[in-house]
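[Meeting: bench + compute handoff]

Bench side (C.D.) handed over the final construct sequence. Compute side (W.E.) agreed to return the predicted structure before the next meeting so the bench team could plan truncations. Sequence as handed over:
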Amino acid sequence: GSQCHLQALLSLYKLFCPELVTISLPQKTKSYFKNSEGPWKAAISAIRQRNQGSSPLSQAVFLGTPQPPSRKRKWNCQWVIPASSAISLEERRERNCVDLYRTSETFPVEQLQSFPQLLQNIHCLEFPSQMGSVLTNPLLLHYMNCVKDESVYLRLYYWMGQMLQEECPWCVVDNTDEKEFKNFLENIYKAECFLQEGFSACEEFLYKSLPFWDGCCCRPEVLKLVSWIPLSSFSEIQSCLYDPLSQLFFTSSLYFKCSVLESLKELLKNWLNCNVIHMDPE
């Protein structure tokens, strides 16, 4: 019968194999299937524009958004802890401010210098507004490890996801600052090694960007991040990780093949270490 979903399926067959569909179909059919060639066409167009040197407004290839946020400023990308927005104890006393939502005074995070200081003020520590400074500060990473504050992780993952989206050289047309992005990925990797766990925002970025990766741009840093992908189902790992890497693996140099195998070996080792921690001693 003339059911719209069946007509959409038949029109898709007629597009790719017209000899299989002999009946006439209406010209205007509701689209039920996404065009699988869309991301590839966008990636090829981005490479062409990059090579021609006359790139228009940047477009994020892998997120499906027509225009990313304005990149005139790189928000929250400072690696140095800025002055805290919290009012100090002396200022509060001078202004006679009363905070109805906090029972204790906040400790300015930029004054944090030692681990004993962290232990003494861990109950009143306030995270900085520049989330980038957390990745390079061991004391704040200790804080993340000790205090399982969901809001801290959400802030960090949101900021990290935005930065990875806007600064990725092979997914954004007019971004050519590969050195700065490599430094950013290296800082993320060091933080993951310190915490002994991968970031979910980084995992999502890898799964979305690996199909468009050429295997050359930021290769050491990308493969290091691959080694910290959390353990998940085999079907997800195969489609999101192994399939994109295998396409590069079989067409690349021996050095690249060894680098991929080394990264997967580290990934397996990290999975085993994580499972040993939660394993029953018996």
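W.E. noted at the follow-up: The chain has twelve helices and no strands. C.D. will use this when planning the next construct.
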